Amino acid sequence: MDWWLEVSVPVENEAAEAVADVLSRYAYRGVVIEAGPEGWNAGPVVVKAYLPADDQLRANKRRIEEALWHLGQIRPVSAPTFRSVAEADWAKAWKERLNVLHVGRHIVIRPSWRDYTPTPGDIVIRLDPGMAFGTGLHPTTQMCLVALEEMIYPGAEVLDMGTGSGILAIAAAKLGAGQVLAVDNDPIAVGTARGNVMINGVQETVSVVRGSLAEVSGSYDLVVVNILSKVIVEMMGEGLATRVRPDGVLIAAGILADQGAEVVTAMERRGLALVEQRQRGDWVCLVAKQGYFSG
């Protein structure tokens, strides 16, 4: 595919997740929420998605406009803007934006086209996001990386649901995990993640597969899911908690602060107990453990 239709909607923080939910129905490769010019804690953010230029494009564009109009009757939502983006131009824009990023104590995210000389103790992740989401810039991704750095132990078995670019799965492997299963339902993300796994040399530890939670078997010491809160709640109903071993840990992010209580309730109904809530701006990362809730 040579080009995509970019949908861009500037909204206030509290409406971002609702708009993202609308766009996610038609943008199978996912939705990204970017900080506005005033940063994550002030002013509007921008919700973006990319629609494939296929025979459903015109109908999907119309459906998005209609759905956002209806949403606008409930809360202020700007009309979406659309522009055609060549895949090469999309990649060029990302490359200009991404620089070497330090996260947590030792993690360094190095875009594959940037030079970087590691210092002792650095855990360097080479990353080419391609058209998949997961660059390390978003606060939710950074909170997940820090949580992984603190909680991974040698030999741990990890499940990364909705892996995107593979950044969290690769970090888990480089932090000492023994086995990592990275899952995404987007074939583009799967291809991107597999490429990133290879350039980071962790293919013996990380397996990237296309699929959904229903196709994941077994249980894991640590499960990480960095998606929208609505999707996390749905996954809880589909058995996400059963993928966490007794005394295992679930790291859940991609959650706006005012949506956190709903996710916690869904966790507790399935036997998970919230042990920590981290927050950066309007975003929270929830850490829960299996086997601690008796309600």
Structure description:
The chain has 295 residues and is α/β, with parallel strands linked by helices. It has two domains: 3-94, 2-Layer Sandwich (Alpha-Beta Plaits), CATH 3.30.70; 134-290, Vaccinia Virus protein VP39 (Rossmann fold, 3-Layer(aba) Sandwich). It has helices at 16-24, 57-72, 87-97, 139-151, 167-174, 187-199, 229-237, 260-269, and strands at 3-11, 31-35, 45-52, 81-86, 101-103, 107-111, 123-127, 157-161, 179-184, 206-210, 220-226, 244-256, 272-280, 283-290. The strands form three sheets. A seven-stranded mixed β-sheet has the order 10-9-8-11-12-14-13, with helices on both faces. Strands 2-3-1-4 form a four-stranded antiparallel β-sheet. Helix 1 (16-24) runs antiparallel to helix 2.
Outline the fold blueprint.
Blueprint: E1 3-11, H1 16-24, E2 31-35, E3 45-52, H2 57-72, E4 81-86, H3 87-97, E5 101-103, E6 107-111, E7 123-127, H4 139-151, E8 157-161, H5 167-174, E9 179-184, H6 187-199, E10 206-210, E11 220-226, H7 229-237, E12 244-256, H8 260-269, E13 272-280, E14 283-290
Parallel strand pairs: 6-7, 8-9, 8-11, 9-10, 11-12
Antiparallel strand pairs: 1-3, 1-4, 2-3, 5-6, 12-14, 13-14
Helix pairs in contact: 1-2, 7-8
